[in-house]
Amino acid sequence: MAATGATATKELKIVREPRVYLVGRQVVDPAVVDRFLADHEVSWTTDTEVGAETLAEMAGRVCYMSYGKGRKSNAEFMQHIIEVGHGSVLEHGVWSFLITGVSRSFTHELVRHRHFSYSQLSQRYVDESDSDYIEPDVIAADPELHAIWCDSVNAARAAYDRLVAGLERRYASEPDRTLRRKMARQAARSVLPNATETKIFVTGNARALRHFIELRGSEFADVEIRKVAVQVLKLMQRESPAMFSDYTLEALPDGSVVTRTAHPKV
């Protein structure tokens, strides 16, 4: 969706919804698993084809050497793990995501989840002169507030462009063109608003993902990060039902959605 403000020199591009891409998952080496089982004279098979679920079950069973004993299905085993709160077992299941269409405000909150690993778009290297922006829904819904927001963002964009141009002239004696542009952008980015769109690559284990979904899927969380938490939950319920099927989605009176589980803090 596009909008223009009084100070705009080019189209202001506004992103309304984040996107979450599940780009990586684990695989199991069955030959090595079989060698371990043979070495310890035990037998075990699992009925899941999800690598992370297989590895989490294998890790859980090693605690008691319960291979071939007790709960037969992976879903039964993982349900028990979740019910008793044995969350460390879930840390062996890992996925990677690419999140786009989010603001710098969002990533400032996201990186507080210290059990995730991150790689984020660099404003020192990437030209932000034509970047997208994330407008809060509550501002977008009010024409007067929307106009104020657009004018403010456009003023920051114009200042960024002027600063980059001036700083590149200031560093004109630097022979390395890439370094010259980086030095200009790293100083000019100081005027960019938190609404600037960014992209971030995130890797996390199932336990960390559950914590993120519970904390950020709550009605008390920021609206933008809650949207991402809901998207992550939907992906994970398809990807690993054994680890995430205890969650439900609940609609609030305003039409937004929150996450719920009977087994928090696993």
| Radius of gyration over all CA atoms, rounded | 24 Å
Most strands sheet: 4 strands, antiparallel
Tally of strands? 9
> What class do helices, strands and sheet pairing give?
alpha+beta
Can you walk me through this structure?
With 266 residues, the chain is an alpha+beta fold. It has a domain at 27-85. It contains 10 helices and 9 strands. The chain has a 4-stranded antiparallel β-sheet with strand order 3-4-7-5.
Keywords for this entry:
10 helices; 4-stranded antiparallel sheet; single chain; 44% helix
Secondary-structure topology with pairs:
Elements: E1 2-3, E2 12-15, E3 19-25, H1 30-39, H2 51-62, H3 74-84, E4 94-103, H4 104-110, E5 117-120, E6 133-134, H5 137-140, H6 143-170, H7 177-188, E7 197-205, H8 206-216, H9 223-239, H10 241-244, E8 247-251, E9 257-261
Parallel strand pairs: 2-6
Antiparallel strand pairs: 1-2, 3-4, 4-7, 5-7, 8-9
